[in-house]
Automatic annotation (TrEMBL):
Cell location: Plastid, Chloroplast
Keyword Translocase among UniProt keywords: no
Name by which UniProt lists this protein: Mg-protoporphyrin IX chelatase
Catalytic activity reported: protoporphyrin IX + Mg(2+) + ATP + H2O = Mg-protoporphyrin IX + ADP + phosphate + 3 H(+)
Organism of derivation: Quillaja saponaria
Length: 421
């Protein structure tokens, strides 16, 4: 259920330093979101052949255009899907929504971990992000969503085709969001190899898994702190290398697995392994709203959605479209955003003074600040941008002190103002 986050102590402290009209209007604009733009997928050249002694059949279908009948079928299929709660309708939760938007703008930030009380709209907010995801270029029919222009995001077959100089069929498709169930098997996540077909026909018959489907998209794990250790190891390996390798019976197959990792969970149900927690670029905390009037508003909005989802979504259509355009413009303008060397030095000084292990905190803070500047429509990062994101980038990277009573977010923001002012 959508909810609001109460005014945190970090937000109160930050508001004392940055109270410009621009920043206030931007905070309020986070509740404005954009509509969805249905992407199209084309599949072609799929052939299946039986082995000796069995019935043989083949399927070959190459789609070059979508006619009116196919369009009607896609629309009907889309309308039959379970409706998603609009991102714009989520009341409050500005910290969580900002982290999600920044990762869509710059996937290299590394994802976001959302921790908070149960029933505060964590999974609702993540799944509502589907409507805002922009379209990307991909090779038609490729199971790994290969980027026709980036060799690091290409499957091996596509890369070989590029080396041979073959013409690739390129289509536009929406960024994909894949749910990773807690009870999923390792084969379902990584993919499986058909050993019988490999032995009888001498080919690498590989059935892609969830990691292949999530390449260049979003991999969402609800209740990530309850995930089995063997799946955590798989995620760590893929997140570190950007590739997934399947080894079965002497056969090895690799494919790109670069995804935005989003996790949510309740801290009361257990801590996350430090190795996996460090892989999340940002960390957002949500809490239950205490204001009675806001709670009533949230209940009423959710009741309206449950009563008539289509009508409820239509009321937020304009706001959804506005934010989607804002995201598209931010993605296109991200490469032109600059950050002064002086600000980079101060960011690294904050990380060093807080004894943050490694350099991932420095990198993520720089990327998040640039993504925020692009979201605001600027080409230069300011101290205000850094102040907005640095807590989310460093909070989960501080070493745990069992005797420490101060929230780690407050430690980060206090050190920030000590260095920057």
């Amino acid at each position: 259920m959508a909810s609001t986050v109460g005014t945190s102590s970090t937000a109160i402290l930050a508001s004392r330093y940055f109270t410009s009209p621009t920043s206030k209007s931007f905070i309020h604009s986070l509740s404005v979101s954009t509509g969805q733009n249905c992407g199209r997928k084309f599949y072609g050249g799929i052939g299946i052949h039986g082995i000796k002694g069995r019935s043989q059949f083949s399927v070959s279908s190459v789609a070059t255009e979508v006619n009116a009948v196919e369009q009607a079928q896609k629309i009907a299929s889309k309308e039959s899907q379970r409706p998603v709660y609009p991102f714009a309708a989520i009341v409050g939760q500005d910290e969580m929504k900002l982290c999600l938007l920044l990762n869509v703008i710059d996937p290299k930030i590394g994802g976001v971990m959302i921790m908070g009380d149960r029933g505060t709209g964590k999974s609702t907010a993540v799944r509502s992000l589907v409507d805002l995801l922009p379209e990307i270029k991909m090779v038609a029919g490729d199971p790994y969503n290969s980027d026709p222009e980036d060799p690091e995001s290409m499957g091996i077959e596509v890369r070989e085709s590029v080396i041979k100089g073959e013409q690739l069929q390129v289509v536009m498709t929406k960024i994909n969001m894949v749910d990773l169930p807690l009870g999923a098997t390792e084969d379902r996540v990584c993919g499986t190899i058909d050993i019988e077909k490999a032995l009888t026909e001498g080919v690498k018959a590989f059935e892609p898994g969830l990691l292949a489907k999530a390449n260049r998209g979003i991999l969402y794990v609800d209740e990530v702190n309850l995930l089995d250790d063997h799946l955590v190891d798989v995620l760590l390996d893929s997140a570190a290398s950007g590739w997934n390798t399947v080894e079965r019976e002497g056969i090895s197959i690799s494919h790109p697995a670069r995804f935005i990792l989003i996790g949510s969970g309740n801290p009361e149900e257990g801590e996350l392994r430090p190795q996996l927690l460090d892989r999340f670029g940002m960390h957002a905390q949500v809490s239950t709203v205490r204001d009675a009037e806001l709670r009533v508003k949230i209940v009423e909005e959710r009741s309206r959605f449950d009563r008539n989802p289509k009508e409820f979504r239509d009321t937020y259509k304009a706001e959804q479209e506005k934010l989607q355009q804002q995201i598209t413009m931010a993605r296109s303008g991200l490469s032109s955003v600059q950050i002064d060397h002086e600000l980079k030095v101060k960011i690294s000084k904050v990380c060093a003074d807080l004894n943050v292990d490694g350099l991932r905190g420095d990198i993520v803070t720089n990327r998040a600040a640039k993504a925020l500047a692009a979201l605001k429509g600027r080409d230069k990062v300011t101290s205000e941008d850094i102040a907005t994101v640095i807590t989310n980038c460093l909070r989960h990277r501080l070493r745990k002190d069992p005797l420490e009573t101060i929230d780690s977010g407050l430690l980060v923001i206090e050190k920030f103002y000590e260095v920057f002012t």
